Amino acid sequence: MGKTHSLRALQSGHWPSLIGAWLHFEVSFMVWILIGAMGIAIADEFSLSATEKGLLVSVPLLGGALLRILVGPLADQFGAKTVGLYVLGVEVLALSLGWGWSTSYEALLGIGLLLGVAGASFAIALPIASQAYPPQHQGLAMGVAAVGNSGVLLVSFFAPRIAHAAGWHNTFGLMLIPVLLTFCVFYLIVQSSPVSQQSPYSQKPSMNFMGLLRQAIGQKCLYWLYCLYAVTFGGFVGLSSFLPIFFHDQYQMTMITAGTLTALCALSGSLARPIGGHLADRFGGAVLLQGVFPLLGLFCVALGYLPAPQVVLSLLVVTLGLLGFGNGVVFQVVSVRFRRVMGTASGFIGAAGGLGGFLLPSWFGVLKDTMGSFAAGFWVLGGVSVIAWFSVIVMQRSVPLPVPGSVLD
Fold it and tell me: Mean pLDDT of all residues in the chain?
């Protein structure tokens, strides 16, 4: 019954656009996390400290955070498809530079910042999915598009193996193949304009770039959701980027083993995201968020004790599952509150996720160098999760979250 309901929901909108949105996000996510997936090989070649490792894998996440703010309003004004094609074009440039010019740590930092454009795919995929489906199926549609964050699963599994066989420089070059294929498919199957009459659920904003920015930043709820997403998505992408280094440095695992285990953890978060969005459609985001954050805090505290590898793997699978579930719930709320400026809102709130992802590997690396252990990094994430939990309780009492089926924008 539930399966039939989900199938009908997916058929209620323009499903080719949903596939295109998912593919754009999937491949771009692989590009975004590529340096993190090869971080062990790069760190060994340049003899990096823990702080330098953390900065290396987090710089693309910072680039994505900054560019999401720009790409979101541009997608609202000029169409997510058009802007999405430009994003893929810049990814081709960044990968080409990584292939031929990544000869020093400093050069890699600059290339990593440019690779951050791939993280802006978030502000492309989610508006396309949102505008292609009716209000009652927003959480499911955007959850499916956002399953593209499973790109971390693919890149974590395959990139270390390719880097081991062909070298990490050539891995940048080989990544050009799926990006170019995605460009062609995205061009062919996504609606020519997400604000055209082919997409009856979208509404073209009547404002220019600056007007869209002003409308978004004038919403107080935006800043609260910004903070929540910095925890959920920032935690997911930050841990996914840093886990190969964590497994290698803490448990002396090889690059291939560390990548495989990271892929397993990422799979949990990717599968949980559409479930979170779908359940938020049915029960509302507030109830679910009040359960996600305290559980997340408990698992982070347990991770801080750095138990045996088998135990830490189980804890991380659940932790990333909770983070992915929380991502789906938060963006169901975003889609309900900011439907007419979805690109702008997703750009701002998505930027928070990228910023959180940048901070997490950075603090893990700094704390490891200063305190000699990864424990404090997990405990900081647990403390932030508890703060987010209290904020949900307070916000729900003062400004209740939307109930299923409502539209507030």
Answer: 85
Amino acid at 168: W
pLDDT of residue 164 exceeding 90, the answer is: yes
Q: Residue written as tokens 């593919």?
A: 23
Q: How many residues does the chain have?
A: 409
Look up residue 78 and give its two tokens: 């000029």
Question: Count of alpha carbons within 13 Å of 208, Cβ hemisphere only?
Answer: 1
pLDDT on residue 328: 85
* Neighbour count for residue 284 (Cβ, 10 Å): 22
Nearest to 83 by CA among 57, 122, 130: 122
pLDDT digits (tens, 9 = 90+) for 328-339: 888 777 777 666
Q: What is the pLDDT of residues 84-93, one digit of tens each?
A: 999 999 999 9
Among 349, 230, 226, 337, which Cα is nearest to 280's?
337
Q: In order of start, what are the domains of the chain with their CATH numbers?
A: 10-193+209-398 (1.20.1250.20)
Produce one character per residue of 229-248: b if its CB has 16 or more CB atoms within 10 Å, e if not. bbbbbbbbbbbbbbbbbbbb
Q: How far is CA 36 from CA 137, 257, 316, in A?
A: 34, 14, 17
| Closest to 364 measured CA to CA, from 230, 236, 245 | 245
Half-sphere exposure of 192 (CA within 13 A, CB side): 3
pLDDT of residue 167: 95
Contacts of 82 (CB under 8 A, 6+ apart): none
DSSP string, 161-189: HHHHHH-HHHHHHHTHHHHHHHHHHHHHH
Compute the CA torsion angle 5, 11, 13, 18 (nearest 10 deg).
100
Q: Is there a contact between 263 and 71 (Cβ–Cβ < 8 Å)?
A: no
| Maximum C-alpha span of the chain | 59
pLDDT at 135 over 60: yes
**Full DSSP string of 342-372:** HHHHHHHHHHHHHHHHHHHHHHHHHHHHHHS
Query: Does residue 196 have a pLDDT over 50?
Result: no
Number of DSSP helices (H) and strands (E) in the chain, helices first: 18, 0
